[in-house]
Design goal:
Layout (H helix, E strand, L loop, with lengths): L1 E4 L5 H12 L3 E6 L2 H10 L6 E5 L5 H14 L5 E4 L16 H29 L2 E6 L14 H20 L5 E6 L17 H12 L10 E3 L2 E2 L3
Parallel strand pairs: 1-2, 1-4, 2-3, 4-5, 5-6, 6-7
Antiparallel strand pairs: 7-8
Helix pairs in contact: 1-6, 3-4, 4-5
The structure holds NADP nicotinamide-adenine-dinucleotide phosphate (NAP).
Length: 229
Amino acid sequence: MLALVTGGNKGIGFEITRQLADLGHTVLLGSRNLERGLAARKQMGDPDNVQVIQLDVSDTESIKALYDQIRSEYNRLDVLVNNAGINYDTWHNTFNADLDNVRETLETNLFGAWAMIQQFIPLMQSNHYGRVVNVSSGAGAIHGMSSGTPGYAISKAAMNVLTIKAAQLIRSGDILINSVCPGWVRTEMGGSSAPRSPQHGAETIVWAATLPKGGPTGKFFRDKNEIDF
Ligand code: NAP
């Protein structure tokens, strides 16, 4: 099985990559900076089944170049984990938010994932197999939404709608598309006070990336349990 993890060079993405590789899958570790990606692979012990690839999800050309590479080397993609994410924007609110900063957030967190789905779903369809995991956040759940982190919360709420819209287009059971909240995790984004390890944060994402045929699609999960969008 061939998996691609965006933002695989650190944090939760690093752990998703490691766990999928430990399960025996070939994993493309996406890193917008190739050196950082190679350093991450080294930290994993340079496993044979982890290949580092350059990918900036906010750059359409970067996505197209990667697609061409995957098409010619493998002609398949079984698992796409849209993990890359930025800007947990605690520093402003809805009324005073810097909208350029919000646009930047949407560019990666929403449009990056959307562009990846557009690019790779046809390849999954041609192989009649695909698992897409959008790494979302409870901050993007409409139910109980707080006033904080406006750009981030809106980007993840929109990502959840992307999950629903994409899943509604494919009802065959061959391709499953879900959102997962990893919980509050100790990473550069989550900070050092977060209660969860990156290993724990990655677990449900890996579970959703390896669901059996006919498994759930168009849903939102935390700790392998469905939660409200
Ligand atoms: P992190 O440690 O800050 O890592 C983010 C990763 O995304 C890095 O590899 C980063 O690359 C990459 N990235 C950022 N912009 C990118 C782009 N344009 N193209 C490709 N890669 C890009 O964050 P994390 O905590 O592991 O978060 C991973 C995901 O989990 C995010 O989607 C986040 O929103 C979500 N999440 C996290 C928490 C939490 O508590 N940590 C909670 C809920 C949801 P660089 O190293 O080059 O910056």
